[in-house]
Design a protein that fits this description.
Elements (H helix, E strand, L loop, with lengths): L2 E7 L3 E8 L2 E9 L8 H16 L7 E8 L3 E4 L2 E4 L23 H6 L5 E5 H12 L8 E6 L3 E7 L2 E2 L31 H5 L1 H8 L3 H9 L3 H25 L3 E5 L1 H19 L3 H4 L3 E3 L7 H8 L4 H9 L10 E2 L1
Parallel strand pairs: 1-4, 3-13, 4-7, 8-11, 11-12
Antiparallel strand pairs: 1-2, 2-3, 5-6, 8-9, 9-10
The structure holds zinc ion (ZN).
Zinc ion binds next to loops.
């Protein structure tokens, strides 16, 4: 296999990248298409891959395998993965803020019309796989990759095995119910789940200020903003406690824009919420920063289909770092 491709599908943006044994070759990013037929986002990915191939002078058929790191959840129809993502499909939940009425996106079906080797994973599972292969979780057998951003998601590894579940949705602890005493609603429809209480999208719904505005207000000494953010951090910590208690994990690598920018002062609040319960389960639990940073999703997508004999070179030479340099307008 000479060339592999990665697709990163998010609620806001989509990115594709192509790599060979020696590293990333090209990357293109666009806003995720959320208009037209439910096939549109999948067709957008194929069209972006075609453009990326043109940039490096190869044809689409030369891509030996395509890995996909996508926001979830997934459902399977006829064994094929469809996206049922509240941030892409306007037919889910009742927010009315998306201009389509899609119930699901037939992602795998569209990709298989063009490629024979396709591997699709939830974005946090792909990120976890990449951090274990190349990054901060190397040699960790009981660990999680967590993102705290627009949404909140987990990729879980127990006894050295990545957890997938019946539809590939293991790790959707962002929709784990934490309280029925809250009016905070998640995009999935739940009240009082982890995302409802702490995700960037729902902080904005709850407090009428974007996470950036909220955190800026905290810096300026706004006590209400401070209380709101501490409240969110405690619930986030409780979610981590519940996952620790359930799976006996040792390390959480936490990424996502909220943690990336504010993790330094949020960490003691989150750590206190984890460690103030049942020390037998929580003692020694570590919260660490991921190593792959902004391109963890691209690296994760590529890693899903990467030949084993490339992996050591990618790790040793930090080749994923070059993804940023291959960015095309
Ligand atoms: Zn939810």
């Amino acid at each position: 296999m000479q060339y592999i491709a990665g697709i990163d599908i998010g609620g806001t943006k989509m990115a594709v990248s192509i790599a060979d044994r020696n590293g990333p070759l090209v990357r293109i990013a666009e806003a995720t298409v959320k208009l037209g037929t439910p096939r549109a986002p999948a067709e957008q990915a194929v069209s972006m891959l075609r453009s990326a191939c043109e940039r490096i002078g190869i044809s689409l058929s030369e891509l030996g395998a395509v890995g996909v790191s996508s926001c979830g959840p997934f459902v399977k129809h006829g064994g094929l993965i469809h996206l049922v993502a509240p941030n892409i499909c306007g037919g889910i939940g009742n927010r009315g803020d998306l201009l389509n009425d899609w119930e699901s996106v037939p992602l795998e079906q569209v990709l298989r019309e063009h490629f024979t080797h396709v591997a699709i994973q939830n974005d946090c599972v792909a990120a976890l796989a990449a951090e274990r292969a190349f990054g901060a979780l190397h040699n960790e057998d009981n660990c999680a990759y967590v993102t705290w951003s627009t949404g909140i998601g987990f990729g879980l590894c127990v006894d050295g095995r990545l957890l997938h579940g019946k539809n590939g949705n293991a790790g959707h602890a962002g929709h784990m119910l934490l309280t029925d005493q809250s009016q905070a609603q998640c995009g999935c429809g739940n009240y009082g789940d982890t995302e409802a209480l702490a995700s960037g999208r729902n902080l904005e719904v709850q407090y009428g200020r974007s996470p950036e505005e909220l955190f800026n207000a905290v810096k300026e000494g706004d006590v209400h903003a401070h209380a709101a953010v501490v409240h969110a951090a405690k619930w986030f910590g409780r979610a981590l406690y519940n996952v620790t208690a359930t799976l006996d994990l040792r390390v959480f690598a936490i990424g996502g824009s909220i943690w990336h920018h504010h993790g330094d002062w949020l960490e003691p609040i989150v750590r206190e919420e984890i460690c103030s319960h049942l020390p037998a389960l929580t003692q020694g639990v570590q919260l660490i920063r991921p190593a792959l940073d902004a391109h963890v999703a691209d690296a994760g997508a590529l890693y899903l289909v990467m030949p084993d004999d490339w992996v050591a070179d990618w790790r040793q030479l930090s080749l994923w770092d070059r993804i940023a340099e291959t960015e095309m307008e």
